[in-house]
């Protein structure tokens, strides 16, 4: 080892203090005490001399103060508990934002902390480390401790009413079943490759998305029931069936998912024979999740006939109350990956086929399922020993909105559990009007889980909604009512400082001081949404006064790192959630549950009949309407034909009249012509007679 390399001593301040106490009280000699604790004698002599000071920190001063770093730690813990864990980049961004908004000098480039600062921060705060978060659904995050305790209370009442508490106290009669999937080609996380290589590939030896569903059942005594495998195929070949052990269950479905049929086959052919073989006393308790394949009426009837009390765990709590998910499946999956890797090395990287699946899974089960893991899983889930107090409620992210009194003289800087008072939302956080404004409430203030932002326009609209007459009449106690008192309290607490027409609110407000003066004390209150502060204002008799912090004094104050550390709202389950809309029976095979299932089935059948009758009525109405439509069309067609006939008759009549008129005209013309011809003939005869007379006279 290089002589210039410094080694960290293997003793701490507590050991030095004990060693010094033994030496000063003369219980041990300096040599013996130093040898006992492994501390150099020169160190103890120096500590006992007058040259020693109280400074025990090594190295230079940290960039952030101890209190500021502690607030960062509390922020990280608060975000973790709310289900929003902080990544490294976000933490560095918070520190950068703080230095960007303050004039404090720092050695960071562009105010961004580097790798060494992060390493030192983790070394100074051992309670913080890098972890891989577990993904939790939104519905699971909203489950509260009260929900789980209520489920345990309902289950206990049922067990007592049906004389099943003896089974709940016997580990050989308590079981938990659940499905999980195994990928035929598990993804490799890290491999060994050449340094600096940009492209590192791994060839898939099978479909990376193909997985097999396996049903497992575990007993509270540490026993393991043979699994049931559901294969994604339409028909099971003889070769595949021969590769499975005889006591395993083998089913099939189009997509390889567990369904009601396969679950019933598993209970009848695998689980029940296992109980008979072990000579377990019936009835037994079988805890499962609320999947549709587990809660069907057929499954409930089968379990009731076999003496199996099928109990559904509280919805969305399998990560808290199901032993298989809590303590067994994770090491089993790790063992599965190792078993698949070993099998490929043994068979030269061949593809893992379905016929090879049972042997590899059996090897993974032998190495990944331990008896103590099973018993510990049942214990931390409260199933055996049975009780709600055994459950790890630290996994419950959601919290209830509570009301509590606040001691105005209490110190908000720290609490016994290491969290700042701001994590429970201090009294001054009741309303966050603007980032620059704070509210002060007295000891009767309501403390909510999260504050809200109210725009000033909304406040003025609320004042207009109350009305000036009602506001002016708040001082008259004779007209007071419960509703009036509520409106009056809201007005005085939130709206009065914004009422420009109220003379009591038109007073100059200015910031005077924070709770403490030093930087460490200034940052002593860690809050989520609003920085804790204390302001003086007029009139002094009203403790609910909104402080006006828009002046120059506020603009020049020091910025606290707490103002940058804001946590999101805690997830809460709405009262309209489906679990609250219907009565939830924890025991599926209870008579009331079966009656409910049958009633629902009967209602479904009645609904189908009713819909069918309505459909028939609609069809008959449609036929009748079509018939009426056809009759109307026929009548219209007949009417049109009659109209056409009348038109034709009128046309023929007009034609005959025209012909008669033409004939009369022709006859008149003919008579006229004959008359003219006759007249002409007479004229000619007259002319001839005259000529004849003239000739006679001349002769």
Automatic annotation (TrEMBL):
<dbReference type="Pfam" id="PF03184">
    <property type="entry name" value="DDE_1"/>
</dbReference>
<feature type="region of interest" description="Disordered">
    <location>
        <begin position="563"/>
        <end position="583"/>
    </location>
</feature>
<protein>
    <recommendedName>
        <fullName>HTH CENPB-type domain-containing protein</fullName>
    </recommendedName>
</protein>
<feature type="domain" description="HTH CENPB-type">
    <location>
        <begin position="56"/>
        <end position="131"/>
    </location>
</feature>
<dbReference type="InterPro" id="IPR009057">
    <property type="entry name" value="Homeodomain-like_sf"/>
</dbReference>
<feature type="compositionally biased region" description="Basic and acidic residues">
    <location>
        <begin position="626"/>
        <end position="663"/>
    </location>
</feature>
<dbReference type="InterPro" id="IPR006600">
    <property type="entry name" value="HTH_CenpB_DNA-bd_dom"/>
</dbReference>
<dbReference type="GO" id="GO:0005634">
    <property type="term" value="C:nucleus"/>
</dbReference>
<feature type="compositionally biased region" description="Basic and acidic residues">
    <location>
        <begin position="670"/>
        <end position="684"/>
    </location>
</feature>
<feature type="region of interest" description="Disordered">
    <location>
        <begin position="626"/>
        <end position="684"/>
    </location>
</feature>
<dbReference type="GO" id="GO:0003677">
    <property type="term" value="F:DNA binding"/>
</dbReference>
<dbReference type="InterPro" id="IPR050863">
    <property type="entry name" value="CenT-Element_Derived"/>
</dbReference>
<dbReference type="Pfam" id="PF03221">
    <property type="entry name" value="HTH_Tnp_Tc5"/>
</dbReference>
<keyword id="KW-0238">DNA-binding</keyword>
<dbReference type="InterPro" id="IPR004875">
    <property type="entry name" value="DDE_SF_endonuclease_dom"/>
</dbReference>
């Amino acid at each position: 080892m290089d002589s210039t390399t410094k080694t960290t001593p293997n003793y701490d301040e507590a050991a030095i203090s004990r060693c010094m106490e033994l030496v000063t009280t003369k219980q041990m000699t300096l040599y013996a005490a130093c040898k006992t604790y492994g501390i150099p004698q020169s160190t103890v002599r120096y500590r006992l001399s007058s040259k020693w000071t109280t400074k025990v920190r090594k190295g230079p001063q940290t960039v952030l103060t101890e209190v500021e770093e502690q607030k960062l730690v509390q922020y990280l813990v608060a975000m973790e508990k709310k289900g929003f864990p902080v990544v490294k980049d976000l933490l560095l961004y918070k520190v950068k934002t703080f230095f960007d908004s303050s004039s404090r000098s720092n050695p960071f480039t562009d105010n961004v902390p580097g790798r060494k600062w992060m390493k030192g921060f983790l070394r100074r705060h051992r309670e913080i480390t890098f972890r891989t978060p577990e993904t939790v659904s939104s519905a699971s995050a909203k489950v509260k401790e009260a929900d789980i305790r209520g489920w345990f209370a309902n289950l206990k009442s049922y067990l007592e009413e049906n004389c099943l508490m003896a089974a709940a106290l016997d580990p050989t009669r308590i079981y938990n079943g659940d499905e999980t999937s195994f990928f035929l080609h598990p993804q490799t996380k890290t491999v060994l490759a050449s340094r600096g290589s940009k492209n590192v590939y791994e060839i898939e030896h099978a479909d990376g998305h193909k997985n097999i569903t396996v049903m497992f059942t575990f007993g509270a005594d540490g026993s393991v029931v043979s699994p049931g495998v559901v294969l994604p195929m339409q028909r099971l070949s003889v070769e595949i069936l021969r590769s499975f052990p005889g006591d395993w269950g083998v089913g099939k479905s189009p997509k390889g998912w567990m369904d009601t049929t396969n679950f019933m086959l598993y209970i009848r052919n695998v689980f029940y024979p296992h109980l008979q073989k072990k000579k377990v006393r019936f009835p037994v308790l079988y805890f499962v999740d609320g999947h549709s394949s587990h809660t069907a009426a057929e499954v409930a009837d089968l379990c009731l006939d076999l003496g199996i009390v099928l109990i559904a765990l509280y919805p969305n709590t399998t990560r808290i109350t199901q032993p298989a998910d809590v303590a067994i499946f994770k090491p089993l999956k790790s063992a599965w990956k190792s078993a698949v890797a070993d099998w490929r090395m043994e068979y030269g990287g061949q593809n893992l086929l379905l016929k090879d699946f049972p042997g590899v899974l059996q090897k993974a089960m032998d190495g990944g399922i331990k008896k103590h893991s099973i018993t510990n899983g049942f214990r931390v889930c409260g199933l055996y020993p049975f009780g709600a107090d055994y459950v790890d409620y630290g996994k419950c992210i959601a919290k209830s909105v509570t009301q509590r009194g606040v001691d105005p003289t209490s110190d908000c800087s720290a609490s016994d559990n290491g969290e700042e008072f701001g994590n429970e939302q201090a009294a001054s956080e009741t309303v966050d009007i603007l980032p620059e404004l704070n509210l002060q409430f007295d000891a009767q203030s309501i403390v909510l889980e999260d504050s809200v932002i109210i725009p000033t326009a909304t406040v003025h609209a609320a004042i207009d909604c109350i009305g000036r007459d009602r506001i002016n009449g708040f001082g008259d106690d004779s007209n007071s009512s419960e509703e009036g008192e509520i409106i009056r309290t809201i007005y005085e607490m939130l709206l009065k400082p914004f009422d420009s027409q109220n003379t009591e609110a038109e007073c100059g407000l200015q910031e005077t001081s924070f709770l403490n003066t030093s930087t460490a004390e200034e940052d002593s209150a860690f809050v989520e949404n609003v920085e804790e502060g204390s302001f003086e204002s007029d009139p002094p008799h009203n403790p609910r006064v909104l402080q006006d912090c828009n002046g120059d004094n506020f603009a020049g104050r020091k910025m606290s790192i707490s103002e940058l550390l804001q946590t999101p709202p805690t997830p809460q389950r709405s009262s309209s959630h489906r679990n609250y809309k219907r009565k939830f029976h924890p025991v599926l095979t209870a008579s009331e549950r079966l009656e409910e299932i049958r009633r629902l089935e009967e209602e479904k059948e009645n609904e189908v009949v009713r819909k069918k009758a309505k459909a028939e009525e609609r069809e008959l109405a449609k036929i009748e309407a079509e018939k009426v439509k056809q009759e109307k069309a026929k009548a219209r067609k007949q009417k049109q034909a009659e109209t056409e006939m009348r038109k034709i008759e009128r046309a023929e009549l007009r034609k005959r009249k025209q012909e008669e008129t033409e004939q009369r005209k022709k006859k008149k013309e003919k008579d006229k012509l004959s008359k003219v011809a006759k007249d002409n003939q007479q004229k000619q005869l007259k002319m001839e007679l005259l000529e004849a007379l003239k000739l006679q006279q001349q002769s």
